[in-house]
Design goal:
Blueprint (H helix, E strand, L loop, with lengths): L1 E6 L14 E2 L2 E2 H12 L4 E5 L3 H9 L19 H14 L6 E5 L8 H11 L12 E7 L8 E3 L5 E3 L16 E11 H5 L9 E5 L11 H15 L1
Parallel strand pairs: 1-4, 1-5, 6-10
Antiparallel strand pairs: 2-3, 5-9, 6-9, 7-8
């Protein structure tokens, strides 16, 4: 049994009501629910929320809200893993035969169903085809510039390199780096129950093109995401 869990608390401060704010005509959370449904990967799609309005909208778009998230894991200090552990434990308590769990963020309008399918395919590879057990498969993309050439601004206003040994290294000679795309985290039931970190030597990425990745944490992020979505829809 594969379960999708979409964390969606009601207390977003930088973009109020972000999870259900209209984005190109739909509540933001609807994109995550629809991608999960379209993927065909899931037996159940749950939304973990502390907010009755979010719960009602989630149900309208086809998700289940069988519990209300406790307030002690619905504040600014609760981590994704806190929320996921609570939801996974609830599913186990219902005696559901859970095998794999996917955390899908509620603010992921660029999420494609085929990316979820690819993630499950990697997670479910037979042990004979992989060198180690895979705990998690997560969405990722490449940095647009070599991280070895990154600079920091000091308190005196001058700059310094994080990796000065690469001052004169050609960009094409530096290994490419990736970062979390913030869309989904497929994991085994055991990985979530044991609260294992998402990014370890037992994690694998699903690489996405940079044009399909955008954090949405500020009003400026939201505006850019709407413009990007419009461009991709042309």
């Amino acid at each position: 049994m594969n379960i999708a869990i979409i964390p969606a608390r009601g207390g977003s401060k930088r973009i109020p009501r972000k999870n259900i704010k209209l984005f190109h005509g739909k509540p933001m959370i609807a994109y995550s629910i629809l991608a999960a449904k379209e993927s065909g990967c899931f037996d159940r799609i749950l939304v973990s929320t502390d907010d009755e309005e979010i719960a009602a909208i989630a149900r309208e778009w086809g998700a289940e809200t069988p519990f209300i998230r406790p307030k002690n894991i619905a504040d600014d200090f609760a981590t994704t893993m806190d929320v996921m552990k609570h939801a996974v434990d609830w599913c186990v308590d219902q005696q559901w035969p859970v095998q794999n769990v996917c955390c899908i963020y509620a603010t992921a309008p660029f999420l494609l169903s085929r990316s979820l399918q690819e993630g499950l395919s990697i997670l479910a590879q037979p042990l004979s085809q992989t060198a180690a057990i895979v705990d998690y498969v997560f969405s990722a993309t490449t940095f647009p510039f070599p991280i070895q050439r990154a600079l920091s601004v000091q308190s005196n206003g001058f700059v310094s390199m994080f990796s000065p040994e690469h001052m004169n290294t050609r960009s094409q000679d530096l290994p490419e780096a990736i970062h979390d795309a913030g869309q989904f985290y497929w994991g085994t039931l055991a990985a979530y129950q044991q609260e294992k970190p998402f990014f370890t030597s037992n994690s694998k990425p699903v690489l996405l093109p940079r044009k399909r990745v955008q954090d949405i944490d500020t009003p400026e992020d939201w505006e850019f995401a709407e413009l990007l979505y419009s461009a991709l829809s042309l």
